[in-house]
Amino acid sequence: MPLTKPPVGTLRLILGDQLWRGNPALAGHDPARDVLLMIEAPGEATVVWNHQARIALFLASMRHFRDECRAAGLPVHYIALDDPGPPSLAERLGAVLKARMPRQLVACEPGEWRLRQAIDAVARDTGVALTWYADTHFLTPLADFNAWAEGRRSLRMEHFYREQRRRHQVLMAGDAPAGGRWNFDADNRRGFAAGGPRAVPAAPRFAPDTVTREVLALVARR
Prior knowledge:
Layout: E1 10-13, E2 35-39, H1 52-71, E3 76-79, H2 89-100, E4 104-108, H3 113-126, E5 129-133, H4 142-149, H5 157-168, E6 172-173, E7 176-177, H6 185-188, H7 210-221
Parallel strand pairs: 1-2, 1-4, 2-3, 4-5
Antiparallel strand pairs: 6-7
Helix pairs in contact: 1-7, 2-3
């Protein structure tokens, strides 16, 4: 999509794993002044090794959510994988910010620290005010984890996990784990019997629609 669009009030960045209408970045959205921004970036598919099916799932999901938002009357600025421009999400975001000069950029915290740092840097370099919203996918906000981690010599997942079990009373019997065990990691590391796993249901399958077929062809080509 061309970048030469009129200025906007608030640009609301929606990342590829934040595709739900309850996204905190959509709170208070004004369709008359605000625009949703979604970016397909080749660089995000190559930061680490990715299976083609996983890449296709992300892109198809993004395009379906784009169409859902537009059908609901929400303006969406969408940058597709094959659109001209730099490969990284941060560089593509920077180009949009410079072209559209929003009053502010809002986004839900990404699950990856690398991406948050990159978006912080782009907003700072372009002089656009950036507001982060906590990701409500998680039971524990980042601030709570930082408070737990402060002063610890080592960060071990098992210790954090047990504290959160107690805090949220998940599978607990008072202050003890339900059933008497915190986890079954040792059992999970054992192999299957000689006959392999039993009674595994067949995976559900769905015929891909037009959007998904286009993405599958795009990923195969790229």
